Amino acid sequence: MSQTTTTVKRLRQAGMSQAAIAREVGVSQPTIAKWEAGKAPKAADAAIRLQLLGQGVGAPAAEATAVEAGVSHA
Which of 20, 34, 44, 47 can bridge 39 by disulfide, Cβ–Cβ 3.0-4.6 Å? Predict the structure, then answer.
């Protein structure tokens, strides 16, 4: 199971709806449904790993996301 699918499933088990997850992530609810069903693109898993890697060195989640998107906070 992909990291994206695992994360969506954990959020759902914690009581979040697909629509709520979609709003927070900035994607559509059908996209979350696909991810939950195991149809997540490899780029989504890479983004999660990048965010976790950034947090491992003290980078805030927003900074790790910006790095993944190629945006500089400087």
Answer: 34
Residue 55 is which amino acid? Q
Distance separating alpha carbons of residues 74 and 62, to the nearest angstrom: 13
How far apart CA 1 and CA 62 sit, in angstroms, is: 25
State phi, psi for 29 to the nearest 5 degrees: -60, -40
**15: amino acid identity, one letter:** G
Query: Token pair 């950034």 is at which residue?
Result: 54
Q: How is the chain split into domains, by residue range?
A: 1-40, 41-74
Residue 18 reports pLDDT greater than 90: yes
Instruction: Tell me the pLDDT band of 57, cut-offs 50, 70 and 90.
Output: confident
